[in-house]
Amino acid sequence: MKSYRKELTMQTAGRRELINITPQVEQALAESGIREGLCLVNAMHITASVFINDDESGLHHDFEVWLEKLAPEKPYDQYRHNGYEDNADAHLKRTIMGREVVVAVTEGRLDFGPWEQIFYGEFDGKRPKRLLIKIIGD
Q: Fewest Cβ atoms nearer than 10 Å: which of 42, 85, 90, 129?
């Protein structure tokens, strides 16, 4: 069995963004040479997420509205965490959206269902953060 590891650095212009990272993950898979196995993609920061869904702008807007209702950014003083930082909402949003995804690798390709894409969700951006891609198999 082979193992391949790659880190990406993500830096967003805004505090919150959803970025389709499927092309970067497919590139890492091609670099790995692995044809059958599993691909793990995870955010290495507690205020960022990796998830699978449809790449549709209306849905992305719906995520933003829904997450903001569940864990509004402001007022900052509604959260006990917000003393040193003002990002408690980002921690909560990450918990809801998830830390990582695992995708089967079949015949050298990510084995997706219809419309599935991998996204990086940033909830406290404007600074560099690491993303891990780990692929194992043959």
A: 85
- Reported as a single tens digit per residue, the pLDDT across 33-57 is 999 999 999 999 999 999 999 999 9
Any idea what the CATH number is for the domain that residue 26 is in? 2.60.120.460
Indicate the number of domains in the chain.
Answer: 1
Cβ atoms within 10 Å of 102's Cβ, excluding its own = 11
pTM summary value: 0.96
Full residue range of the structural domain in which residue 124 is found: 2-137
* Cβ contacts of 73 within 8 Å, gap of 6 or more: 15, 89
Tokens of 75: 């007022």
Distance CA 105, CA 3 (A): 13
Query: What is the C-alpha radius of gyration for the chain, rounded to an integer number of angstroms?
Result: 16
